[in-house]
Amino acid sequence: MSTIEVFILALIQGLTEFLPISSSAHLILPSAVFGWEDQGLAFDVAVHVGTLLAVVLYFRKEVGNMAVAWFGTLKGERDNFDGKLAWWIIFATIPAGLFGLLGKDFIEEHLRSALVIAATTLLFGFLLGFADIKAKQNKSIENLGFKGAMLIGLAQAIALIPGTSRSGITMTIGLMLGLSRENAARFSFLLSIPAIAMAGSYLTLKLILEAGAVDWSAMGLGSVIAFASAYACIHYFLILVNKIGMMPFVIYRLVLGVGLLWFVVG
């Protein structure tokens, strides 16, 4: 991979991992427009490491509190909300893990086409817009409840279908359940930590088993760029989301989906 390819693809991954606009829809664009080859497993591992480090570092206080409180629940402590939140995130991650394990081959073979990505980009863009306009957005994460967390976890499993956007659909369900925009985003980002860790671990295992050549310079650069762009994305999204809402991202998704359809049909 050339340096410019590494830079662009890592930047796209870092930004679209957390914005509700679908990373898969964007990652097919450079290959379609410029004819770039698949970036390979090693690069996928690198950008997953970068985005994972970004979200863990940004929410380091919350993650630390949840880890301590979770161990406390194993000793019988039940009153700390951070411990409950840790359990919610653990259980809400299970659907995505099971769906990924059982459905990955079907998804790879049948659902990675530009047409599917265009359709899901449009469909879930409309749903995000509907939720942003119609839902009552006043709940805190504490009021979400275990059932609400599991509903968001089930939505995260659906996001394995390319074009859906993991952050997009989890924020959509969070809004529909009454979370404020900021809290829907925060819960989505916290829920992404085990999801990204699982995906990165799976890709790492595949890389080890394949035992192919690794471009360490491309991996290092890709990881750094993905980390920096993802960290900045989380920070500014949380600042702006209450001011601008979700509609700019909805409009962007609709334009992108129409553009992809035009590319497929044309």
TrEMBL record:
GO terms for biological process: cell wall organization; peptidoglycan biosynthetic process; regulation of cell shape; response to antibiotic. The chain crosses the membrane at residues 40-59, 85-102, 114-133, 184-205, 217-238, 244-265. GO terms for molecular function: undecaprenyl-diphosphatase activity. Catalyzes the dephosphorylation of undecaprenyl diphosphate (UPP). Confers resistance to bacitracin. Keywords: Antibiotic resistance, Cell membrane, Cell shape, Cell wall biogenesis/degradation, Hydrolase, Membrane, Peptidoglycan synthesis, Transmembrane, Transmembrane helix. GO terms for cellular component: plasma membrane. Belongs to the UppP family. It is found in: Cell membrane. InterPro entries: UppP. This is Undecaprenyl-diphosphatase. Its EC number is 3.6.1.27. Bacitracin is thought to be involved in the inhibition of peptidoglycan synthesis by sequestering undecaprenyl diphosphate, thereby reducing the pool of lipid carrier available. It is a multi-pass membrane protein. It catalyses: di-trans,octa-cis-undecaprenyl diphosphate + H2O = di-trans,octa-cis-undecaprenyl phosphate + phosphate + H(+). NCBIfam families: PRK00281.2-4 (NF001393), undec_PP_bacA (TIGR00753). It holds the Pfam family BacA. It comes from Cognaticolwellia beringensis.
